[in-house]
Amino acid sequence: MRITFAQGLKKFKGPPGQTRIIDVREKDEFQEGHLPQAELYPLTSFVQSVQDGAFEKDQVLLVYCRSGARSGQACDYLRSQGYQQAYNIGGVLDYKDEFGPLEK
User: Which residues on neighbouring strands pair with residue 103, listed in sequence order?
Assistant: First the structure.
């Protein structure tokens, strides 16, 4: 499911650890700038991370990349594995337009 950054960041403020912000870009992209509190899980190794238990099925997962394409793939995979609260919040390009600079 695709939602905007604003929807994701406002709607899913819950208990600590309940909502996670997941960046599925590559390490070099992440180092250039990322969302506050984002965790890096590159799409190239995403399936293995999921299989290794990186996420809990009851967590809200806000997933993003550069433009929204890779995060869409990651969310599709998560949903196929039973993660019903996985949301594609688009790309950092959208974020910068709405909220300004990224963290480094």
Answer: 34
Residues taking part in catalysis: 65
- Token pair in block for residue 45: 């190794």
The closest alpha carbon to 22, from 93, 102, 86, 83, belongs to 86
**Which residues are CB-neighbours of 104 under 8 A, at least 6 positions away?**
31, 32, 33, 34
DSSP-assigned states of every residue in 37-99: TEEE--GGGHHHHHHTT-S-TTSEEEEEESSSHHHHHHHHHHHHTT-TTEEEEEEHHHHHHHH
Question: DSSP labels for 77-92?
Answer: HHHHTT-TTEEEEEEH
Chain centroid to Cα 103, Å, comes to 15
Summarised one tens digit per residue, pLDDT across range 19-78 is 899 999 999 999 999 988 899 999 999 999 999 999 999 999 999 999 999 999 999 999
> How many CB atoms neighbour CB 52 within 10 A?
9
